[in-house]
């Protein structure tokens, strides 16, 4: 009974701890709202985010277009929502690739040590030392029609180095814990030890890093698109919307073109960080108990 | 444009490649200077010497600073400050005497030119007809790779010289240092319009083989001319510093110098506001923001140019020096016409160019006497319904239900489109075109997912890069309506690589002896325009309106249909503005 209840009450304690963290809760609500709006975009707006409308170029915010239109006569609200889908989808996919690759490499290197460790860590060094932007530009010119999927794969496969290092360090520390020794002494197989005992111990670090990576990838999408190497020109994404601000007339005279995208990028990145902090603190309760 | 290409320039003055949207065209006469004001800043009278003017250009320049070799308006703009042709063009687009005057024999085959005494090169040499002869020989030389052979090929013996069969061009005879006689092979009505009229300093190029000239220091680093400004310093792709040439034959220039500098066009309004640029041919999409500035004057003039969207029909065979029409993709005329009907050209001009442009359907300037009246041609009005009908008829149908048409054999049909980077509206403007075609079910995509810089663009188009299928370019025209240079099967600049027997016949007929009869010649060009209008080897988009923005402190600037660099020795700077 006690055993069964322990995790529940720990979860409860974690949840209470998280709930007590005001910034984290507000951030969570904000993020959920943004996600919901973006996901529901096709039902929320009647305007096509890509379709050029020659009769409504550069319009100020109005009842018809709440946030005005851009230089192609495209409704900014619908571009923000559909752009959010692209940006968040890229962030999500890239994070998944990074977290997946990084965890596997980090755990294997940390747990097995020795030559496996050396090999995997040298690979990580190679990935970390790759000139990131240059490679993205090269891929873009080799495969110009690749679009978003090619961007996701390039960034994902180049970005897992840091993640793997953190996971490896944590694995090295966890490995020395007595419960690991106990598991081994009881005759548990490697796979069981890894999945049932080691991975749960990494959860806290994993989640926090996951959050930070997701936030960072939103920034990466925005900066690559701003530079013209990210999401193909014309497709809505928050980074592409920011790129419109390259024109001085837009920056000084058409705030509605760039300010909302700016605020959303900042808001989403900030809120992910706050949530990450909240989760970190909440999970530390569990870790103390372990 | 950008960018952004060479070839022969025949008839029309100069054919120049220009940027699509940034600058509207550069219809600079190729081998003539323009004169005759159509708009102008300031009043003449109290002028003042001194000061330097910054001339802005939106795309990196190639740096071929010799009239015989340059290709695009990027380099032409510099050449217009540093040198001049020996003949000029009047407002009615006819060629007139300048430094050189001429007499034509009764059979129209012998021309005797006399040039002014005392015209100086910027290195101190005196200009003689030897320099002109040298320029003609360079262009006719077997190793000459530039685009201007057309402007010397009418000279007797030029062909033999080019083939390496003769040591000199037999039709050129020097009588004295200021007199030269040129014989041409056939009497052509536009001989004098086409004849190359820029001199090249023979002594200055001594020891440089013709094939090395485009990369020589004389062209790239220290070009000289006979114009009002001389080159002081060239930073490739960035700027050209020019200073006053005191021995200019028309008189000492008022300005101390001109700085030709490359700027990012997106910044043009703020650069003008800060006074960083004094004069630039402005992108049409900056029209509104420039118009709001108190310190800027905008001058407008119709442009001798047209914007087009060309189809690739084949490639250029460099060995045979002719086109090969071996690409069947756009072979069906109905496909080409359908794409033309599908374009909302007026909407695009109104939306992205503030209406600055005039729809055109044939490649002859509406300023010209040879332009066919609108009612005699198909104007290809925006008509998606008609476009769909034509596509259905041609067998381009959506067979797999994805909303996009497959080709008549049922295979996926994707067309790649190329255009140039220029102003801020390029992206939505291009997107608007792509969507126009998508609306009728054609899957047209941006080649490489992005717009290209002018020089890259024109290089890929000219070299027939296999990825280039549909391309959005601009031609600056010369004064004579003869389409040679851009439309014949042996024209490198025939970028679509399209021709037909009828096309060749009509172009030849337009410069035949019979064409000395203006009415006959006009009819030939009407027929040719009807042919182009029906065949649609390219979708002629519009003629453009040039906007020149000049800081109000700069005085004496005039613009006309070919250029805005007219007599820059008269430009001056007014204090206090």
Automatic annotation (TrEMBL), chain A:
Where does the protein end up? Cell membrane
Q: Where is the ABC transmembrane type-1 domain?
A: 88-276
Q: Which Gene3D superfamilies match?
A: MetI-like (1.10.3720.10)
- Keyword Ribonucleoprotein in the entry? The reply is no
Record has Transmembrane helix as a keyword: yes
* Topology with respect to the bilayer: Multi-pass membrane protein
Matching entries from CDD domains are given as: TM_PBP2
Please indicate which superkingdom the organism of origin belongs to.
Bacteria
InterPro entries, alphabetically?
A: BP-dependent_transpt_permease (IPR050366), MetI-like (IPR000515), MetI-like_sf (IPR035906), OppC_N (IPR025966)
Pfam families this protein is in? BPD_transp_1 (PF00528), OppC_N (PF12911)
Q: Which UniProt keywords apply?
A: Cell membrane, Membrane, Transmembrane, Transmembrane helix, Transport
Membrane-spanning residues: 86-112, 119-139, 151-167, 198-220, 255-276
Give the protein family: Belongs to the binding-protein-dependent transport system permease family.
Q: What is this protein called?
A: Peptide/nickel transport system permease protein
- Organism (species): Paenibacillus forsythiae
Automatic annotation (TrEMBL), chain B:
Q: Which keywords does the record carry?
A: Signal, Transport
Bilayer-crossing regions: none
- Spell out the coiled coil positions from the record: none
Q: Which residue ranges are recorded for the region named Disordered?
A: 26-47
Tell me which residues make up the Solute-binding protein family domain: 99-487
Record InterPro entries: Opp4A, Peptide/Ni-bd, SBP_5, SBP_5_dom
Q: Where is the signal peptide?
A: 1-22
Which family is this protein grouped under? Answer: Belongs to the bacterial solute-binding protein 5 family.
Output this protein's name: Peptide/nickel transport system substrate-binding protein
Species of the source? Paenibacillus forsythiae
